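User: Reviewer 2 asked us to show a designed sequence for the structure in our supplementary figure. I'm pasting the structure tokens here. Could you produce the per-position amino acids so we can include them in the response letter?
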């Protein structure tokens, strides 16, 4: 039985900070825990969006690649879709989107996911250039990114919200990825304007945190030497 109350997360954003970018889970393994999700490939190779069981990677060349089961990821979220409609937005920016997802409250103390499906008057995304061994730090790798922009595009914004308490394991607040219906643009969202979109929400009461304990680099790394992990994550995101 599919557990729609569970958000599965492989790895943490904190482990990316010092450059622990090895792929430690396969796409096949990840999708045993969900038909919807986001992530990145080994070496921060592009941005992954999984919608309706179809996994795509948007790479630094702007290509949308349908992924194979052996694609590996250092970090990813996944869950089984059971969204409920919460209305729609018209002429909305990121602030209005955030308020709608939070039901106009200042914050949330649980994880949830939001889908915004419709027309975006503006979308700006990024995809990072793949880092090769020896991997760069997150900050250095994030500087080597391609930026993509589009106007009046139909697509889906897939977002995961994490409470402030979990910043480091995830990014506090919203983590937004995008996929156009025609696959013309996608990736990690930097900015957007919604022309008109239907909103759907799914709340999770359980976070299943999976760590790459079979990866020697992760198990032996001392994160105390990496400085303010939360600050680096916030800047990179």
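Assistant: Here is a per-position design you can include in the supplement:
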């Amino acid at each position: 039985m599919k557990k729609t109350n569970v958000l599965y997360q492989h790895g943490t954003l904190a482990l990316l900070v010092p450059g622990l970018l090895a792929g430690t889970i396969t796409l096949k393994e990840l999708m045993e825990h969900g038909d919807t999700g986001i992530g990145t490939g080994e070496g921060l190779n592009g941005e992954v969006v999984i919608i309706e069981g179809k996994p795509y990677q948007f790479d630094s060349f702007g290509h949308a690649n349908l992924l194979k089961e052996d694609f590996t990821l250092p970090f990813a979220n996944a869950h089984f879709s059971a969204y409920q409609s919460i209305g729609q937005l018209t002429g909305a920016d990121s602030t209005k989107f955030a308020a709608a997802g939070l039901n106009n409250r200042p914050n949330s103390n649980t994880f949830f996911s939001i889908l915004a499906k419709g027309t975006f008057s503006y979308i700006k995304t990024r995809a990072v250039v793949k880092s090769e061994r020896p991997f760069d730090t997150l900050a250095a790798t994030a500087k080597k990114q391609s930026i993509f922009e589009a106007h009046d595009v139909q697509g889906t914004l897939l977002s995961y919200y994490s409470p402030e308490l979990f910043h480091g394991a995830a990014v506090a607040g919203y983590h937004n990825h995008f996929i156009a219906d025609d696959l013309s643009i996608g990736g990690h969202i930097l900015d957007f304007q919604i022309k008109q979109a239907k909103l759907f929400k799914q709340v999770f009461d359980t976070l299943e945190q999976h760590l790459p304990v079979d990866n020697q680099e992760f198990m032996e790394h001392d994160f105390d030497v990496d400085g303010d992990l939360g600050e680096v994550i916030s800047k990179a995101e």
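For the response letter, you might also mention the following. The first strand starts at residue 6 and ends at 10. Residues 94-101 form the longest helix (8 residues).
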